[in-house]
Amino acid sequence: MLMRAVRYARYGGPEVLSVEPVPIPLPGPTQVRIRVAATSVNAADVNVRSGSVKLLSGRKFPKGTGIDAVGEIEAAGADVSSLSVGQRVWAVTCDGRAFGAALGSAAESAVFEASHVTPAPAGVDDLGAAATVMPATMAVRTLGGATRLLAGERVLVRGATGAVGAAVVQLANALGGHVVALASAANADLAQSLGAAEVFDYATTRPGDIRPVDVVVDTAGPGLLAWRRRLTPGGRMVSVVASPRALAGAAAGSVIGLISGSRVRTLVAQPPQEAIAEAARHVQEKSIRPVIDSVYPFEQAPAAHRAFEGGGLRGRVLLTP
Ligand SMILES: NC(=O)c1ccc[n+]([C@@H]2O[C@H](COP(=O)([O-])OP(=O)(O)OC[C@H]3O[C@@H](n4cnc5c(N)ncnc54)[C@H](OP(=O)(O)O)[C@@H]3O)[C@@H](O)[C@H]2O)c1
Questions:
Q1: pLDDT above 70 covers what percent of the chain?
Q2: From atom 8 of ligand 1, which residue's Cα is the shortest distance away?
């Protein structure tokens, strides 16, 4: 039996992506197969497709693309007991499989480890769920385990109107944090509407322009140490942007990413299932609402990747079958 899947046969620009007929994958004993309703474009997809992480992603082609999904379970492996066929779920994979592009959730069906899957939030449609599965999970991880944000603390979010940043701003606000957002000037209105108390233009703001903060959540990458100096004594900082070392750790399947320096953590690892489930609760309770930049059918995957790479997004870029 065949299905439609977004594939590519060489590294390159978005134009290498096309929809191909491929065999429907069979789940292994600990896996489930999801009938995909929607998936999103993540930096990992673009980095693998472009060849910029080819030391990790290798030379095996064709490759699929897509590391998260929302949909219905259509088959489950013999050892899966916590999930059942017909259940509406969401799933996210950030371990080595994401860099091998073996996952390929931009397809009519995709196989995930059952431990990467939880029930999808009720009362949120498939596009909304696909827009939040990765960002809300990262928000839980950065504000929960990694920095333990407390009510009343000042939290700086770098990249506040990107997909992950938008979820972090909302959850930080819901937890009682005072959110300081760094975003492009064009998206200042969005940062404010998500709950930021202060919004700064990242192009013109220097770290010294911002009063000290208790927590920094970085989704932008460069210049981490300058922002780290804005931490109060006892302040915590986490980045979700992968350094080469952290990427190598994730590809090797390490449980937690790198701790670089005493107070900057890089989170690049498979989120525990509890974090994915907690993300679903926050989305269901509407402490994190979907922020959708655009939606493309699989056939327009090149345009979706181009939009992601172009930047200036207001939330998530989605793909649908
Ligand atoms: N560790 C993990 O498992 C994991 C999971 C998901 C994502 N990530 C990482 O998280 C990062 C963000 O992902 P995303 O999907 O949210 O991407 P995104 O939607 O492109 O968001 C990135 C945001 O950063 C902003 N930005 C760019 N340069 C900046 C700067 N110098 N200062 C402040 N903000 C700046 C961008 O603004 P403009 O585009 O408006 O310029 C954009 O809003 C990526 O590096 C991705 O690899 C990691």
A1: 90
A2: 240
Closest by Cα among 147, 97, 117 to 274 = 117
45 touches 85 (CB < 8 A): no
| Ligand 1 atom having least distance to the Cα of 161 | 43
The pLDDT score that the predictor gives to residue 270 is 85
Q: Which atom of ligand 1 is nearest to the CA of 311?
A: 39
Query: Alpha helices of 124-272 — where are they, by DSSP H?
Result: 126-141, 163-174, 188-193, 224-228, 244-251
Residues 6+ apart with CB under 8 A from 165: 157, 158, 159, 181, 183, 217, 219
Q: Which CATH architecture does the domain made up of 2-128+273-320 adopt?
A: Alpha-Beta Complex (3.90)
Q: How many CB atoms lie within 10 A of CB 167?
A: 35
Which pLDDT score, from 0 to 100, does residue 250 have? 54
Q: Please give the distance, rounded to the nearest whole angstrom, from the Cα atom of residue 221 to the centre of ligand 1.
A: 8
Q: At residue 272, what is the residue type? A: P
Task: State the span(s) of the chain assigned CATH 3.90.180.10.
Answer: 2-128+273-320
Query: Could you tell me which CATH number the domain at 134-266 has?
Result: 3.40.50.720
Nearest-10 crossing angle of helices 273-284, 126-141: 120
Q: Per-residue confidence at 245, pLDDT binned at 50, 70, 90?
A: low
Convert the pLDDT of each residue in 173-203 to its tens digit. 999 999 999 999 999 999 999 999 999 999 9
Rounded to 5 degrees, what are φ and ψ at 203? -75, -25
Q: Where in the chain is the domain with CATH 3.40.50.720?
A: 134-266
Q: For residue range 133-163, list pLDDT tens digits in order.
A: 999 999 999 999 888 999 999 999 999 999 9
Distance of alpha carbon 192 from alpha carbon 262, whole angstroms: 31
pLDDT band at 52 (very low <50, low <70, confident <90, very high): confident
Pairing between strand 63-64 and 117-119?
Answer: unpaired
Structure tokens at 42: 């993540």
Ligand 1 proximity of 313 Cβ (cutoff 6 Å)? yes
Q: Which atom of ligand 1 is nearest to the CA of 165?
A: 16
